[in-house]
Amino acid sequence: MAKTKELSKDTRNKIVDLHQAGKTESAIGKQLGVKKSTVGAIIRKWKTYKTTDNLPRSGAPRKISPRGVKMITRTVSKNPRTTRGDLVNDLQRAGTKVTKATISNTLRRQGLKSCSARRVPLLKPVHVQARLKFAREHLDDPEED
Q1: Residue 115: which of 72, 83, 73 has the closest Cα?
Q2: Of all helices (H) and strands (E), which one includes residue 18?
Q3: What is the number of alpha carbons within 13 Å of residue 73 lying toward its C-beta?
Q4: Model's pTM, two decimal places?
């Protein structure tokens, strides 16, 4: 769905004034260079709510406050291996009860994606020495081996 440019408050009020003056939707649209359907929508909104302002949409308010969002974003940015459970506990200590899914959604909204850390064997200096010793011993081995 393509978003068109938004009409200014003046234009919307002008549409309502012209409608009250008795002009048709198509005449108003031609005069102001706006689509007839847009004019109709603005007039319908004005008749229902007596306003041309942008009204808030429906939906539940955010569980995590903007401050909480900054906190978890900062935590994950500093240490990417932080688990969602850790973040849930952090927020619970701060007084906000949320689920792991809410944490995931919030981080995704902030542009941070989750991924599993790759399992990389941790080589200790002993292992490195053993590998080097093996490699040195087998330097002169023929290609077939």
Answers
A1: 83
A2: helix 9-20
A3: 15
A4: 0.47
**In this structure, what are the phi and psi dihedrals at residue 10, rounded to the nearest 5 degrees?**
-60, -45
Rounded Cα gap, residues 35 and 73, in angstroms:
43
Place of tokens 């080097």: 132
User: What does the alpha-carbon distance between residue 32 and residue 97 come to, in Å, rounded to a whole number?
Assistant: 51
pLDDT per residue as tens, the chain (145 positions): 445 568 899 999 999 999 999 999 999 999 999 999 999 999 999 999 999 888 888 888 899 999 999 999 999 989 888 889 999 999 999 898 999 999 999 999 999 887 766 777 778 889 999 999 999 999 888 877 6
The encoded tokens of residue 65 equal 């406050």
CB within 8 Å of 98: residues ≥ 6 apart: 63, 64, 88, 91, 92
Torsion of CA 70, 90, 119, 126, to 10 degrees: 110
